[in-house]
Write a structure and sequence with these properties.
single chain; about 240 residues; mainly alpha
């Protein structure tokens, strides 16, 4: 097994660069690849076997919304980024560098900057030369990962990859990354709404039951009054 010679701060920087890729690829590419039942060739830079940090990703245990656990030493963290920092400082010596490369090399092509800045306001200035370079790198990924000669599935994924990732590499601002959407996620907000609904539903049915019972009671009382009025004759 190869040993990484860089210092842990360098590894931490690489992990931070990889974070957007490990967010965007499973959401905007993987679901479409799985739907086509397509096997990505080993020559593709996005193939799992070519990911330097694949073993670390497999040792991430997502216990709950606010709990991540290290698969090496079982230490817990409340955010994934803190687990990445833990890997960089405590387990960097376990990385196997034999025949693997860092996916961060593909960040330009796969819009890491867009994922990182999606929650921030404002726009970064577009560099036409950088956009052209990233587009070329993106199209190269499409050709090597989804060669159209491999059949209809590869051809559809090739077209999808170009639209999903490559078309946005322009300074015109007309095209945005990931226009075809991706895997739907149920956020904390929807979870809270669901729990609130389950809590309020019994209360709603209780109110309906009480209203119906009160209505029936009122109707029966009115009938008794009516009957009594009919039996009583004026003197």
């Amino acid at each position: 097994m190869g040993r990484l010679k860089e210092s842990s701060p360098v590894i931490l920087l690489l992990l931070l660069l990889l974070f957007p890729l490990h967010q965007s690829l499973p959401q905007y590419l993987t679901p479409f690849v799985e739907r086509e039942r397509y096997q990505i060739p080993s020559t593709c830079r996005l193939h799992p076997d070519n990911d330097l940090y694949r073993d670390q990703e497999q040792h991430k245990v997502h216990v709950d919304i606010y709990e991540w656990k290290c698969g090496y030493c079982r230490k817990s963290f409340n955010e994934e980024k803190f687990l990445d920092q833990h890997f960089a400082t405590r387990h960097y010596n376990l990385l196997n560098t034999t025949g693997t490369k860092c996916l961060a090399d593909q960040c330009g092509a796969l819009h890491c900057d867009y994922v990182l800045s999606s929650s921030k306001k404002g726009k970064s200035k577009c560099n036409p030369a950088a956009a052209a370079k990233n587009r070329h790198l993106c199209e190269s990924l499409a050709h090597t990962c989804f060669p159209v000669s491999q059949g209809p599935s590869a051809s559809r994924l090739h077209e999808h990859f170009l639209r999903q990732f490559c078309d946005a590499h322009t300074c015109t601002g007309k095209n945005k990354p990931f226009p075809r959407g991706g895997k739907k996620k149920s956020g904390v907000f929807y979870l809270a709404i669901s729990i609130l609904t389950l809590m309020l539903l019994p209360l709603f049915y209780l109110l309906v039951f009480l209203h119906q019972r009160e209505k029936r009671t009122g109707t029966q009382a009115l009938r008794r009054i009516t009957k009594t009025g009919k039996k009583t004759k004026p003197s």
